[in-house]
Design brief:
By secondary structure, this protein is an alpha/beta fold. 33% of the residues lie in helices and 24% in strands. Helix 1 runs parallel beside helix 6. It catalyses: N(1)-(5-phospho-beta-D-ribosyl)glycinamide + (6R)-10-formyltetrahydrofolate = N(2)-formyl-N(1)-(5-phospho-beta-D-ribosyl)glycinamide + (6S)-5,6,7,8-tetrahydrofolate + H(+).
């Protein structure tokens, strides 16, 4: 196996998916280490959690920068100074510009609480319920300039129950997010993925057995 990839996790809040990645990276043989956590919001809850795990943290406040480009230039400098290989967005509430995305092409992962390409954007759980979906879930994908678009790495699905509202459905999907984000990062960090257009390939026979998960209700 290649050496462990150094990962920066970008957050804006409590970072529950960040925590899932940190826990996964503790395992022997996991191909990535969480080397840096960056927030654009001073005092974000996830910073304290990451620091308690011995992970370096910093804040690059997007306010007062004058432009999105100036913010992203500082963010880019901060990340590159730590020899980072991959970036994971985990509740990072900023839309990145094409300039930043291209500098990290196929090295930025994001998790979205829906089965893309359906339900891009916000309020995904309420929209899935309004459309009468029987299956809902989450997607980990490589980031592209279009919001919530990019080659899909892993997806996980859960059933929509008769009594669900947006809150209960969101909680069920969150458990899936915490499973599939570490799996997706492991695939990318172990250099088992290649991108062909909008398809992510692993070259492993039967890989879709674990890249598309159906998680039944307990």
């Amino acid at each position: 196996m290649t050496s462990r990839k150094r990962v920066a996790v970008l957050i804006s809040g409590r970072g529950s998916n960040m925590t899932a990645l940190i826990e996964a990276a503790r395992a022997d043989g996991y191909p990535a280490e969480i080397a840096l956590v960056v927030s654009n919001v001073p005092g974000a809850g996830g910073l304290e959690k990451a620091a308690s795990e011995g992970i370096e943290t910093t804040t690059v406040d997007h306010r007062g920068r004058g432009s999105r480009q100036a913010f992203e230039e500082e963010l880019d400098r901060t990340i590159r100074a730590k020899d980072i290989d991959l970036i994971c967005l985990a509740g990072f509430m900023r839309i990145l510009t094409p300039w930043f995305i291209e500098r990290w092409h196929d090295r930025i992962l994001n998790i979205h609480p829906a089965l893309l390409p359906s339900f891009k954007g916000l309020d995904t759980h309420a929209r899935a319920l309004a459309e009468g979906c029987l299956i809902h879930g989450a997607t980990v994908h490589f980031v592209r300039s279009e919001m919530d678009a990019g080659p899909i790495i892993v997806q996980g699905a859960v059933p929509v129950m008769d009594g669900d509202d947006a809150v209960t459905l969101a909680a069920r999907v969150l458990t899936v997010e915490h499973k599939i984000y570490p799996q997706a990062l492991a695939l990318v960090a172990s250099e088992r993925t290649s991108v062909e257009g909008m398809r992510v390939r692993t070259g492993v026979e039967g890989s879709n057995d674990f890249r598309s998960l159906i998680v039944p209700e307990n």
